[in-house]
Amino acid sequence: MAGNKQQKTIPTVYNMSSSKAREVLWALEELADTGIKYNVVNLLRRGADTYKVLKSQFPLGKSPIVTLEPVDGEPEVTYQILPNVLTEARLILQFISDHYTDGVLSQKFANGSLVTKVDNVVTFEVIPTMLFFPLRQLTLLMVMPIRNHFTNDLRVIYQILEDALSEERPWFSGKKLGLADFNMVFPMDMAIGRGYIELENYPKLAKWHYTVINRPAYRRALEKGGPYNLSTFA
Ligand SMILES: N[C@@H](CCC(=O)N[C@@H](CS)C(=O)NCC(=O)O)C(=O)O
Fold first, then answer.
1. Nearest residue CA, atom 2 of ligand 1?
2. 208 and 122 belong to one structural domain
3. Any idea of the CA torsion for 227, 232, 233, 234, to the nearest 10 degrees?
4. What is the distance in A from the centroid of ligand 1 to the CA of 113?
5. Which residues in the chain come in under a pLDDT of 50?
6. Does residue 222 lie in a domain region?
């Protein structure tokens, strides 16, 4: 991400383990080299107080949530619904781009389709695990065709993503890393982590993901945010 702006607020990221909040930590770590400061509150998905803490910041109680602390005692600003509180990963990333970087990062590719389909597959996989014999086995038989239907649907999306990348435009944001890339990482981490993609069929997508997960800022975000396991959701 390009440049730095004078930082007027210090964000605190409420980061639940194995959640989309990691995208936000990655973006902030990319900016840490330009002097941007932030705090992180780590919460375990299955922690006793996790949802209480999240809901104390925003009633929906979903991760990520970001609160903003003015640097020079400026008055609170309502960007969304509550003063100095941000929610929704995509909007948080947009705020980071608008407020902590020089240039407005363009959002050339929406992750909406991918994240929705991946979530559908996860939902149908998780339902049987919440039941006991014999319902678990019966439900498994019922939901597997639906799960497979969504997995097949994903192939079209992967191909669109594959075709969007090239030597000249190695990032979803274009020539340079940007918002679209931060938005894409969680659903791609999930698709790869849960085995919903045959990466060998999508070499450009595979290279994009490999490049992302080997960036020092992404690695720092993994260290700072604690557990990030999208197959067990620890
Ligand atoms: N649309 C929200 C979704 C946030 C969301 O669903 N977060 C998940 C983790 S990735 C969560 O908090 N799940 C806990 C739950 O649903 O109880 C966003 O993009 O930030």
1. 88
2. yes
3. -40
4. 16
5. 104-106, 108-109
6. no
